[in-house]
Amino acid sequence: MENRQRLFLGSARLGALPEWMASGPDPVRRAVLIPTAANPLPEAPWVDATERLLTGEGIQVDRLDLEQAEADDVRRALEPADLVFVAGGYPLFLLDHVNRTGFDRHVPPAVRSGRLAYVGISAGAALAAPDLSYFRLPDAAIDPGDPGVTESTVGLALAPFLVMAHRNNGRAERQDRQIAEYGADNYVSINDDQAVVFTGDNWQIIHSH
Asked: What is this structure's pTM?
């Protein structure tokens, strides 16, 4: 089956997102926003900022907190959606609830078929990788102390590599060390004003102010 996926995998900033959404074959009318990765944090202003941006583009936004959800909630939320937006925070904590709720079973086929566009920022971008075991390394976590306890680190495998976010925030050295040890084919390191975008299997890094 042809891979018709559209992915926007960013580090922090969303300046390029409206144009990217508008460039798709179909208009985005309804989005599901996943705030779960940020739940253990004392505050996560980027979640509300994301919802404001999407609603400002005329998109209906439904929040789905996977920590509070069951499998049927995920299925019902995704059915009418054109886009799923996975916000940043703790990647392994996010993966716990992705696996528990079946999000990992529903999303990849819908994205690859082109029915559902995928936007992931920071932890949400990492989730699109084949594997998230990088975040178990003691010096690699975006925020030390990720409370995730998942046994499996298998990601959604929408991208063939792990997007490593926040390169410009003191993480370049350890990210480069990981790339040198395990290969440039397995990782892409980006700054907060960049995003990796996919159309099908083709990808590029773009500026996102």
From this structure: 0.96
Q: In this structure, is the dihedral angle defined by the CA atoms of residues 153, 156, 162 and 167, taken in order, positive or negative? A: negative
Q: Is 77 helix (H, G, I), strand (E, B) or coil?
A: helix
Spatial CB neighbours of 76, under 8 Å, sequence gap ≥ 6:
none
Q: Are 94 and 86 in contact (CB under 8 A)?
A: yes
Beta strand segments in the chain, E:
6-10, 30-34, 60-63, 83-86, 117-121, 162-164, 187-189, 194-199, 202-207
Distance CA 109, CA 115 (A): 9
Q: 3-40: per-residue pLDDT in tens?
A: 999 999 999 999 999 999 999 999 999 999 999 999 99
Question: What angle in degrees, to the nearest 10, is found between the helix axes of 71-78 and 91-101?
Answer: 90
CA 114 – CA 98 distance, rounded (Å): 20
Name the one residue in this structure whose structure tokens are 């960013």: 10
Please report which helix (H) or strand (E) contains residue 32, including its range: strand 30-34
Dist CA 96 CA 93 (whole Å): 5
* Segment 130-172, tens digit of pLDDT: 999 999 886 554 556 788 888 899 999 999 999 999 999 999 9
Is-contact 11 194, C-beta < 8 A? Answer: yes
